[in-house]
Structures are given as structure tokens and as C-alpha cells.
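Researcher: Re-running this chain for the archive, since the previous output was lost when a drive failed. Same request as before.
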Amino acid sequence: MPRVSAAFFALGLLCLFLGGAIGMNMASGGNAAYAGMHVHLNLVGWATMALCGTFYALTKQTLSPRLAWVNFWVLTAGIVVFFPAYAAFLANGNDPRLVPAMTAGNGLTGLGMLIFAISVARELLRRRAPAQNLDLIPDRPAAASAVQ
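Model: Regenerated C-alpha cells:
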């Protein structure tokens, strides 16, 4: 597994643990105002990071290491900027002064998702040797096709 994939999984696990802790706190009678943070830590933090890590592991022979690391650091910056600002926003009665920091974090996260889309498109559109395209040919018996 490429190191960048392991980095995606490591940050994803941290987000999963934090999101799970918030969820357990809410389930035991804590403040339900943090439900959005719980959901986004699990979706953006865990699910998105794990998906990126898996993609880069599956494409380790053809990935652009520079693009993959840029993807990781931009998504990480989005998480690091957004979630503390969002927690402070909720803890301070939806203080509008924290909206610019949340918006910056959201922008970084969106940019990270765009970089991931570029990585996916790069893999989808790359040239392949003809033998690698055999998965696109439907299965049919060799003897039947020879007779016809």
C-alpha cells in the first residue's frame, strides 16, 4: 500500500474515533446540537478519506504521487480548519464571526474533492495496453463463436 493511502486511512480513523465519541456522547444524553459535526466527521473524515485511500491503493502502479499527496494535504487542511471552527460555532451559540473560518474549511474540502475527481478522471482516461481492455468484452464460449 502506498504511504499516501496509509495517511488517508490514518486521518480517516482519527475522524471516525472523534465522530464516534461525539455520537456516543449524544446517545448518552449529551447535546444533540453536535449531530451535524458527528455526521460530517464520519462522512467527510472517515468515509471520504477511506475512499481516497482505497482508490490510491488500487491505482498504486499508475497514480501521480504528487497529485495524491496534494489531495491528502488539501483535504486534511479542510478538516483541520472546518471542524474546530464548527465546534466553536456550535459552542458559542452559532457565533457568525466563525462562519468565515467554516467557509474556508468547506472551500478547502471542496477543492480536495475536486482534486480527487481529477485523479479519478486521470485513471479513467489513461491509455491502456489492449490486453488490459479484455474486461470490456462479454464472455462467450470460444467454440460457439468459431462455428458461427
